[in-house]
Amino acid sequence: MEALSKRENVVPKDVVLVELSKFVENWTFEKQEDYKLEESYPQVIVAMMKGLVVFDEKFKPTVTLLVPLTDQDDVAVVSHIEFRTRLKPTDLANITKGLDITKQQVEYTLRCLCYITKKERAYLDKFSKFDYKVIEQIASVFF
Q1: Whether the predicted model's global pTM rises above the 0.70 cut
Q2: Residue ranges per domain, the chain?
Q3: Which of 11, 13, 95, 142 has a CA that sits 20 to 30 A from residue 23's CA?
Q4: pLDDT tens track for 84-101
Q5: 8 A C-beta contact, residue 68 and residue 4
Q6: Helix, strand, coil proportions of the chain in percent (round to 5)?
């Protein structure tokens, strides 16, 4: 993606790996080796190096979209994604209502992504491929 390659790296990879490790461990309660982080979160690492993903002091992530969603007048409608960091059992029950999760994994994932990102389903199709992968990888620690 041309826009990504033109962005300068603003955070060194070694710093990114430390921060990502803290984030993953905070939400999954598992420490991961650097090579596992690189396998599981490759787009998140790139986005963090480009300054597109930041974590607050409680490890709550915010993603700045590489390709903001715009309206007909080219005005940004969605430029940042803030995440819910917990999928409560009652929310999970609502999300899975009517699903056979063993046969409808993609539907389950889409419903979880909508809930965690606080965005309607139509937005998921509009995110650039890179932004979608970053969102998906970050959200994976919450469900």
Answers
A1: yes
A2: 2-142
A3: 95
A4: 999 999 999 999 999 998
A5: no
A6: 55, 15, 30
Q: Are 65 and 133 in contact (CB under 8 A)?
A: no
Cα dihedral 136, 123, 128, 54, rounded to 10, equals -50
Tens of pLDDT, residue by residue over 122-139, are 999 999 999 999 999 999
**Both tokens assigned to 120:** 């309607």
> Where do we find the tokens 């990502």?
20
Identify the sign of the CA torsion 50, 32, 55, 122.
positive
Q: Round to whole Å and give the CA distance between 129 and 135.
A: 10
CA 143/CA 136 separation, integer angstroms: 11
- Within a 13 Å sphere around the CA of 80, how many CA atoms are in the beta-carbon half? 8
